[in-house]
Amino acid sequence: MSIHQFSAHLINGEEKSLRDYEGHVLLIVNTATKCGFAPQLKELEKLYGKYKEHKFAVLGFPCNQFGNQEPGSDEEVSERCQINFGVSFPLFKKIDVKGKEAHPLYKYLTKEKKGLLTADIKWNFTKFLIDGQGKIIKRYAPTTSPSKIEEDIKELLSCEE
């Protein structure tokens, strides 16, 4: 199994197969623009800009399950991400990342890479690093700055070449 068997709806409503990302190193993140960690969106964008030509992508999954920190419609979320943080990496429609209604991708991610005390996503900006074959390499806590993940990304990108 790999993440490539899943699909999700982009924030514009278009269905996107994650199979389209075969051969790409990915950083999958549940985001929230009103969260204290929201400045990480700028760091994520910086990584995306730096490595997207090398088959790297950040996939943002907005979520409103933690403290109502991603209110509003998908259109409003997209607008906040672009205007406030300059996000150009792929954003998906708001989803649940935990509980009975969790998106199947997140059920898979949390089953395969558990957190410190539990498999559940505990807060916004939990990050999953995925290799080109769709295998989950590492899970990072919300407090882990995207810049601290850059070396792991570079290492995976060199393996993919």
TrEMBL record:
Source domain of life: Bacteria
Record bears the keyword Metal-binding: no
Xref: Gene3D superfamilies: Glutaredoxin
Domain Thioredoxin, residue spans: 1-158
InterPro entries: Glutathione_peroxidase, GPX_AS, GPX_CS, Thioredoxin-like_sf, Thioredoxin_domain
GO MF terms, alphabetically ordered: glutathione peroxidase activity
Family, similarity comment: Belongs to the glutathione peroxidase family.
Name assigned to this protein: Glutathione peroxidase
Organism: Anoxybacillus andreesenii
